[in-house]
TrEMBL record:
Gene Ontology process terms (BP): DNA transposition
GO molecular function list: DNA binding; transposase activity
Lineage top rank: taxon: Bacteria
Family: Belongs to the transposase 11 family.
Name of the protein: Transposase
Keywords: DNA recombination, DNA-binding, Transposition
Domain Transposase IS4-like intervals: 119-334
Length: 373
């Protein structure tokens, strides 16, 4: 662990961001940002905001007060902070540069993820982040409501290993299906989505373009059974397989799909789930397990909302609010990179909790707590 001796936990956590590896366009923008700032250059501002998001500081004023801790001053490299100055600088941060930092980290995770995790699922869903209509009028989507929507592609390796791979952020009124194809970029990957994305033409388009999918049909879906497949195993983690069929979907005045596979499950709660896929190479129980994995993205959204600062926004501007959501995703990737390096079974929440107490301590103390064995 000698290589960590010169670093605090915060320095170790933050060090995965390589500003020198950003595009020339991003580096030129950062140069311009720094040209107009004596104290709050881009790197310093990002450090302050990531620390604030990760420590769940609720406002610029609380971030300001946090600098009464001399250890934080030494860590960031400034003697004091004026919250109004931070507010101004935050409003100037380029969303494109933050997205590039996120993409850089997501690529590192993909390259460094456990070698034993050779297969993955792409879980796609969205979550609405409600906002106060009076304070955030630009986010209005109904007469009395305001909010933004995070559309996310979560790479799922297993229940202990998943990370955000791509995303887009829109007004809350945007339909999920309109932004689904922005998140689909891996041919031969399997995309798992809920029935909110179900559309005959979309399924065909995914199939023709070389993508696999697993989704749930709607209650009014027209189904024509072409072949009944004999079941050799019925039990699943959440119930029992009722049928495994080859089908086409649609008919009448609707689009008619290619031949797909329909696996019907009776859950332990006695609900029937009809799961459609173009994966013919796996067992029906594996299809059921793939769809069951979809709930992990719901847990991920819950983690974001409960344990990182997106319940309260520092800025009332559209750019400021969106930037804060991106920063929470960046913070998640920074923590997951530490988890990969340690090959640890610790959850992101467990790593975050210990980081809170060991932020300014030598990194080896934080990391030793979560090493396997």
């Amino acid at each position: 662990m000698d290589k960590y001796n010169a670093k605090t936990s915060f320095q170790k956590w933050f060090s995965a961001i390589k500003f020198e590896e950003l595009s020339e366009k991003a580096k030129n923008w950062i140069f311009q940002f720094d040209s107009y700032s004596k104290k709050l250059d881009f790197t310093t501002t990002i450090k302050i905001l990531l620390h604030a998001v990760y420590e769940e500081l609720p406002s610029y004023r609380e971030i300001d007060r946090a600098f009464m801790d001399r250890r934080l001053c030494e860590e960031i490299g400034i003697d004091s902070l004026c919250y109004s100055s931070l507010s101004r600088k935050t409003a100037e941060i380029s969303q494109d540069v933050l997205i590039e930092i996120f993409t850089q980290l997501a690529r590192k995770v993909s390259e460094q993820r456990p070698s034993s995790k050779t297969t993955s699922l792409q879980l796609v869903d969205s979550t609405t982040i409600p906002l106060n209509r009076t304070r955030f009028p630009w986010a209005t989507f109904r007469k009395t409501k305001a909010g933004i929507k995070l559309h996310l592609n979560l790479c799922y390796l297993d229940k202990d290993n998943q990370y955000p791979e791509s995303f887009t952020i829109t007004n809350a009124e945007e339909h999920d299906r309109n932004h689904f194809e922005c998140l689909v970029d891996k041919t031969e990957a399997t995309y798992v989505v809920d029935r909110g994305y179900f559309d005959y033409q979309l399924l065909d388009r995914l199939h023709y373009d070389g993508y696999f999918f697993v989704t749930r049909t709607k209650s009014n879906t027209t189904i024509t059974v072409l072949e009944q497949i004999e079941l050799t195993k019925r039990k699943t983690t959440d119930g029992e397989i009722i049928s495994d069929q080859h089908v086409i979907l649609g008919g009448g005045n609707n689009h008619v799909t290619e031949q797909f596979r329909l696996v019907t499950i009776l859950t332990k709660g006695q609900s029937r789930l009809r799961i459609v896929t173009n994966r013919f190479d796996v067992s029906p129980t594996e299809v059921a397990d793939m769809y069951q994995a979809r709930w992990q993205i719901e847990l991920f959204f819950k983690h974001l909302k409960q344990n990182l600062t997106i319940k309260q926004f520092y800025s009332r501007s559209e750019q400021g609010a969106i930037n804060q959501v991106i920063l929470t995703l960046i913070a998640t990737l920074l923590t997951y990179l530490v988890k990969i390096e340690l090959n640890s079974s610790a959850t992101l929440f467990q790593l975050k909790r210990s980081f809170h107490y060991l932020c300014f301590e030598p990194a080896e103390i934080w990391l030793e707590r979560h090493k396997p064995g």
